[in-house]
Amino acid sequence: MPEVSTQSRTVPVPGGSLELSWAAVTDTGRRREINQDAVFAAYPLFVVADGMGGHVGGEIASASTIDRLTAVADAGVVTPKTIEKALARAVKDIASHPEATDDGTGTTVTGVFLDTEGEAAHWVTLNIGDSRVYLERDGAITQITTDHSVVQELIASGRLSPEEAENHPYGNVITRAVGPSDGVTPDYVRLDVVDGDRFVICSDGLTKELTDYGIRHFLDENRDPADAALAMLDAALENGGRDNITIIVLDVHGSAPAEGDQPAADAPEAETAADDSSTAGI
Q1: DSSP assignment of 193-254, as one string?
Q2: Quick one: which of 54, 178, 206, 222 could link to 202 by a disulfide (CB 3.0–4.6 Å)?
Q3: Sign of the torsion formed by the C-alpha atoms of 106, 91, 81 and 15
Q4: Angle, to 10 degrees, between the axis of helix 225-238 and the axis of helix 212-221?
Q5: What is the pTM of this model?
Q6: Are 219 and 141 in contact (CB under 8 A)?
Q7: What is the mean pLDDT of each successive set of 10 residues along the chain, which is 282 residues long?
Q8: How many CB atoms lie within 10 A of CB 3?
């Protein structure tokens, strides 16, 4: 089992301060030869990427994407605009390895960042692909992101039930990815900052092995983020470990005045205000 430790940081926000605690872990799993997942977890950005394509192509795609997003976090200005510029650079990075990548190469990217601009702080999730962000709030767990997958489209159209989706033959086929030939824009969701919130950001190597209820169970049983992440990893491995597994657990303590979740602007307005909109409320 990898060594994992909980990190913490006090963050000043308009009207108060937050104590953030988090831990991240990644594992090859029991059936893969290499780990094509990549992860970055440091204030203010927490992201997971799950690569695909070829023996090393997926590793190149996920690593390039995380490297570019790490540079954004290090620069200290994380917005939809800076994220999308970083992803555009990652697409070029992936395409610069034609010996190892092709049209089937790509990566998911999913995560959350804290936006402290404006009158109130809020969280923003970002998502491309089928890695996920979960939020445990007030004793309930909710999947915040929506999978970009064939199976999710079938569920949304009413042609497939969630139960049928669990063993569907197209379960691994995603409909949006960061790849060498496509420039894609993440979906965004904006969330209020609430004391006691717990986020889980994970690749599908976790959700293939644990249900939403299982994720909530291990959160409730383990108050420390590192303990929770390791407990989930151990359970996923025990349940088969069929894929690479990457998990971030992020805890929020303290609160700030709520700005309120707000829906995304219509497309023309979103393009005009890409710096601070492009978000959708739940």
Answers
A1: --TT-EEEEE-HHHHTT--HHHHHHHHHH--SHHHHHHHHHHHHHHTT--S-EEEEEEEEES
A2: 206
A3: positive
A4: 140
A5: 0.87
A6: yes
A7: 91 94 97 95 98 87 97 96 96 89 88 93 96 96 92 73 65 81 85 97 96 97 98 98 97 75 34 35 38
A8: 7
